[in-house]
From TrEMBL:
GO terms for cellular component: cytoplasm. One of its GO terms (molecular function) is diphosphoinositol-polyphosphate diphosphatase activity. InterPro entries: PFA-DSPs, Prot-tyrosine_phosphatase-like, Siw14-like, Tyr_Pase_AS, Tyr_Pase_dom, TYR_PHOSPHATASE_DUAL_dom. This is diphosphoinositol-polyphosphate diphosphatase. It comes from the Eukaryota. The keyword Hydrolase applies. Residues 254-279 have a biased composition (Low complexity). It catalyses: 6-diphospho-1D-myo-inositol pentakisphosphate + H2O = 1D-myo-inositol hexakisphosphate + phosphate + H(+); 5-diphospho-1D-myo-inositol 1,2,3,4,6-pentakisphosphate + H2O = 1D-myo-inositol hexakisphosphate + phosphate + H(+); 1,5-bis(diphospho)-1D-myo-inositol 2,3,4,6-tetrakisphosphate + H2O = 1-diphospho-1D-myo-inositol 2,3,4,5,6-pentakisphosphate + phosphate + 2 H(+); 3,5-bis(diphospho)-1D-myo-inositol 1,2,4,6-tetrakisphosphate + H2O = 3-diphospho-1D-myo-inositol 1,2,4,5,6-pentakisphosphate + phosphate + 2 H(+). Belongs to the protein-tyrosine phosphatase family. Atypical dual-specificity phosphatase Siw14-like subfamily. It comes from Angomonas deanei. It is an enzyme of class 3 (hydrolase).
């Protein structure tokens, strides 16, 4: 009987004993995956798993953990931390070993999950980022690295089925719980702490709040909003400024207070169309292609 050719998935590597990483498996990778004797696959893409892969997993008794995520993309798309907590909980459970983590190309989503897994092993941030860049190359995303830096793990463990490489003496503290209820409790506590520590707007002594004047210019099929900031002047200061040739002011007859004069922002309705940069044929297609390439790189 001829021996099978073993072809690893794209970006394949061993993360630690019992855990592997790679790109999306195809039929040519099946003999290699079979040789790994996988028990589980951690699948990160939002798309349904390929029918051929589902059949392969069923034939080889491989359990699929599916965590659909779009990955970290600027400006406002992030992997939910609650999802990361549960992915790591799967990865520290030895009953799931050997396990393969994969997204599409094994770069960004897989790299971020592996980076957060390294936190559980006590790795430094520099080591995590160096490993991430090794696979992402020139496609490395600052948002992924920032996620790893700010992430604080909460994992659910099931003694005695806990990975021996799990460390507790790294740069970050690791919260370990044993039930889903405890996990939700810790998540709530973490969110509360983050909201309390978040910076809030404040004024230092001597600063003045700003009064905003808004002007909206409506053009054909176009609405633009311009905002200008006008410093608020206390009544005594405003009066003093006006008497010395400063900005004009109005007095509120009902209260006797002085309100700052606001200069509206005006737009040029006649030249609205000429101010737009010309759109070249094919620009839309190019933008769509770039977005698809970015998505494929995950």
């Amino acid at each position: 009987m001829a021996s099978e050719t073993l072809v690893p998935t794209f970006n394949f590597a061993m993360v630690c004993p019992g855990v592997y990483r790679g790109g999306y498996p195809t039929k040519k990778n099946y003999p290699f995956l079979r040789a790994l004797q996988l028990k589980s696959i951690l699948y990160l893409c939002p798309e349904e798993y390929a029918e051929s892969n589902l059949k392969f997993c069923e034939q080889n008794s491989i359990h699929i953990f599916r965590f659909p995520t779009e990955g970290n993309k600027e400006p406002f798309v992030d992997i939910p931390e609650s999802l990361m907590h549960r992915m790591l909980s799967v990865l520290v459970d030895t009953r799931n070993f050997p396990i393969l983590i994969h997204c599409n190309k094994g770069k960004h989503r897989t790299g971020t999950v592996v980076g957060c897994l390294r936190i559980l092993q006590g790795y430094s941030l520099l080591s995590m980022i160096a490993e991430y860049k090794q696979f992402a190359q020139e496609k490395a995303r600052p948002v992924d690295m920032l996620f790893m830096e700010l992430y604080h793990p909460i994992i659910k463990v099931h003694p005695p089925f806990v990975a021996p490489w799990l460390a507790t003496g790294g740069e970050k503290s690791i919260k370990m719980v044993q039930t889903e209820e405890e996990l939700v409790e810790e998540e709530t506590r973490q969110l509360l702490c983050e909201s309390l520590l978040a910076p809030t707007p404040y004024y230092t002594q001597g600063e003045q709040p700003m009064v905003y004047a808004t002007s909206v210019t409506n053009a054909v099929a176009t609405t633009t909003t311009a905002v200008t900031a006008v410093p608020y002047l206390p009544p005594s200061t405003a009066s003093h400024t006006a008497h010395h040739g400063g900005a004009a002011e109005e007095e509120d007859g009902a209260t006797g207070t002085v309100a700052p004069a606001v200069t509206p922002v005006t737009g040029n309705n006649n030249n609205t169309s000429s101010s737009k940069s010309p759109v070249k044929a094919g620009d839309g297609a190019s933008a769509k292609k770039k977005k698809k390439d970015d998505d494929d790189d995950d």
